[in-house]
Amino acid sequence: MAIIETEAALHEAHRDNHTHRDVNGGWLRPAVFGAMDGLVSNLALMTGVAGGAMGRQAIVVTGLAGLAAGAFSMAAGEYTSVASQRELVEAELDVERRELRKHPQDEEEELAALYVARGVEPELARQVARQLSADPEQALEIHAREELGIDPGDLPSPLVAAVSSFGSFALGALLPVLPYLLGASALWPAVLLALAGLFGCGAVVARVTARSWWFSGLRQLALGGAAAGVTYALGSLFGTAVG
């Protein structure tokens, strides 16, 4: 009795702990990319303008314009990209759906051959393929996973990608502008806040990846700092040349 209870407890613990995060929802990549891009691009844009010896008002207007333009551009780009990808997948699913309807026996044999290639005994593979093919929708899902590597019921949402990208870009791009909106007149508070934001974003991203928080944070800090430094130098150079 104790052994049965122990096995049941282990099974329950495995079921509770053996869960995975959503990797196909369509929100993580645009959200992460949007926040990083908003921070880096707007910080670089503002430091470039500041390097050209522009005044506080010009820097603030540049930052706000960069925020608005970048957020809408990112949202439109993500929506178009994910929508196009989804339409391509749906077109391939329609092809597979027609093949299942026109040539069910051939598709069943194809599925059996896939299982045989993975080490299943031929007779057992044929039995499994026959049972799975009895339901057309289930057969479509199995073929899509085996042949296309996709789950028809878990396609990324263009709207989710666009909203995630818009919000995260705007939030990231706001950080370099915020000190100016709160009354700062020098560039260094904006740079410090933006670099801290980059490190923080990198550290947060590490929570859903295999990287350590400090490595991910320092990587984003280094990339953002390099971009800001280069654009500041270019702004100074162009400002001197134009002046």
Describe the protein:
With 243 residues, the protein is mostly helical. The chain contains 9 helices and no strands. It has helices at residues 2-17, 28-51, 56-102, 104-117, 122-132, 136-148, 158-181, 188-205, 213-242. It is elongated and about 75 Å long. The model has no long low-confidence stretch (mean pLDDT 85).
In short:
The chain has 243 residues and is mainly α. It has helices at residues 2-17, 28-51, 56-102, 104-117, 122-132, 136-148, 158-181, 188-205, 213-242.
Using brief descriptors, characterize the structure shown.
single chain, 243 residues, 9 helices
- Report mean pLDDT, rounded to a whole number: 85
**Tally the helices: what do you get?**
9
The structure class reads mainly alpha
**Largest pleated sheet:** none
Low-confidence stretches: none
Proportion of helical residues: over 70%
- What Rg is obtained from the alpha carbons, in whole angstroms? 26 Å
Q: How many beta strands in the DSSP annotation?
A: 0
What general outline do the C-alpha atoms trace? elongated
N-C termini distance: 88 Å
Write the element-wise H/E pattern from the N-terminal end onward.
Answer: HHHHHHHHH
Beta-strand portion reads: under 5%
